[in-house]
Amino acid sequence: MKRVVIALLTAAVVGAISFTGCVQKEALPEPEIPAHYTTYTDETGLFSISYPPDWETALFLIEDLDKATEELLTSIEKDLPLERTRMLFLAGLPTETGYEPNVNVVVESLPGISWTHDQVVEAKIQGIKNVIEAYYEFSRVKTTIGGREATILDWDGTVPLGLRSLQAIILVGKVAWVVTCVPPAGEFSKWESDFHAIVRSLRILK
After folding, report:
1. Among 25, 112, 159, 168, fewest CB within 10 Å belongs to which?
2. What's the pLDDT tens digit per position in 96-106?
3. Which CATH number fits domain 2-14+30-204: 3.40.47.10, 3.40.50.970, 3.40.1000.10, 3.30.1490.20?
4. Are 169 and 127 in contact (CB under 8 A)?
5. C-alpha dist (Å) from residue 126 to 12, 92, 100, 103, 121
6. Where are the beta strands (DSSP E) in 1-70?
7. Distances (CA, A) of 137 to 87, 149, 167
8. CA distances for 106 relative to 27, 31, 33, 42, angstroms
9. Does pLDDT of 124 surpass 50?
């Protein structure tokens, strides 16, 4: 489950803001959630997300993953707001070694008073660069998800294994929502269309 931990780590990290400039792709229209997907709604009615029908939720792992992520962050001695981060959801295709591919949903209460959507995106990218080597961004798409402003990142890095991921970032008030899809090593293209459908299926209900 190391790849899940790294994905959670990169989803949760907010670093120093830097505006580096990136060519953004044209926003895509919001597609319908695939009819055959399974939709999960949390018990408090806070959010829902959909995923392929053969995937399974792995909510029992969340506490252990949060702990493993905190230990990893501590070990690399980064000054990061761990207490503000919470993993809400994890699902994937069950295999002998874990859940691959998988999707996780992380929320983070942001420090300070005022953040813009673009500032949060830049901070997330800087946070990724703090813990991932050789960050490379394939695309950055500014769009809407569930009627809310969102940015979808397609990026890769080394940890030392390749960790290509699709990640959606949404700012709601002072809370950043991050949805991250991670494939088995070398299988991003096989799952790319599913990943786009999954991250675009997030609905923040409150």
Report:
1. 112
2. 888 899 999 98
3. 3.40.1000.10
4. no
5. 11, 27, 26, 21, 9
6. 38-41, 47-51, 56-57
7. 24, 20, 11
8. 23, 23, 20, 13
9. yes
